[in-house]
Amino acid sequence: MGFPKNRMRRLRSSEAMRRLVRQNSLSVDDLVYPLFVRAGEGLKEPIKSMDDCFHFSPDMVAAEAAEVASLGIPALLLFGLPDKKDESGSRAWAEDGVVQDSIRRIKQAVPELLVITDVCLCAYTQSGHCGVVKDGRVDNDSTCELLAKVALSHAQAGADVIAPSDMMDGRVGYIRQCLEENGFYDTAIMSYAAKYASAFYGPFRDAVDSAPQFGDRRGYQMDVSHSDQAMQEIALDIAEGADIVMVKPALCFLDVIRRAKVRFDCPIAAYNVSGEYMMLNTAAKAGLLEKDAAMLEALGSIKRAGADIIITYFAKDAARLLGA
Ligand code: PBG
């Protein structure tokens, strides 16, 4: 047994051979592209903390959506920056809010592109927390009621998939019940089920101005040490009516993605977050690594770990390399 009968290099000897035996190929079908919308007109402003990412005003977003669709990417994930913040984050469920307006424009211009919307309050509250603060603490159940209103307003504007990212207990159940009661039987829920209190969200919080004004998010997002608890979170969200469950971030939590894939039968999404994105971009800019190859290797590792869906700011770059 072993060498010289087994020569592992035989199956690596040519590109055709490597293609033939390749496992887990990343495809453009796996990708979701996040997009940031803010109040205004004619805006396409570069986001300082995130290379090649922009804030679009609602009137500019349809053209971007059309480009995303033309690259073969099946879905967008929309984030909004409101015109004003208040205590409860009320601009998050306004019929004329930036996200609601953008959803309508995208669905009109590019109906075949799936619109997924992030549902959270952190960019809309003065506290920068993902829910309503009562006595210095983010109140769970009253926040869930507001999140259901946000989700409903997105569904009414035409969103295909609702993605709650707040990590309140029971919010998937509240949202599902509210959608059912209002006749939105076919609106899917992709829950940020295992979302960690990660240090890799920094560039994003800059981009949407959502850094908490006091304390941190460890009272609701998961402690990074857990993986059993991630399974519990995912099981709860599925029981409450989630169609797709997400692990976030992706690259530091590949073990969690793998465990989720082995254990659950619904699609698993993974979020390649802003810090992961900028870490690679920054290293590439410094000439330390080759961007395209490093990007495909990183995204490929998320796929190999078991993700069916990969949310990434690299989606357009990757789609160009992978072809539609
Ligand atoms: C909002 C939200 C965050 C991200 C997605 N939705 C930030 C946070 O929880 O603080 C992070 C995305 C990224 O870093 O790319 N709750």
Description:
- This protein has 324 residues and is of the alpha/beta class.
- It has a single domain, classed as Aldolase class I (TIM Barrel, Alpha-Beta Barrel), CATH 3.20.20.70.
- It contains eleven helices and twelve strands.
- The strands form two sheets. It has an eight-stranded parallel barrel, surrounded by nine helices. The chain has a two-stranded antiparallel ribbon with strand order 6-7.
- Helix 2 crosses helix 3 and helix 4 packs across helix 5.
- Residues 118, 120, 122, 130, 165, 201, 204-205, 217, 273-274 line the site of ligand PBG.
SSE layout:
Layout: H1 15-21, E1 31-38, E2 44-46, E3 54-56, H2 58-70, E4 75-81, H3 98-109, E5 114-119, E6 133-134, E7 137-138, H4 140-157, E8 161-164, H5 171-181, E9 188-195, H6 202-208, H7 228-240, E10 244-248, H8 254-263, E11 268-272, H9 274-285, H10 291-305, E12 309-312, H11 315-322
Parallel strand pairs: 1-3, 1-4, 1-12, 4-5, 5-8, 8-9, 9-10, 10-11, 11-12
Antiparallel strand pairs: 2-3, 6-7
Helix pairs in contact: 2-3, 3-4, 4-5, 8-10
Bound molecules: ligand PBG.
Ligand PBG is lined by residues 118, 120, 122, 130, 165, 201, 204-205, 217, 273-274.
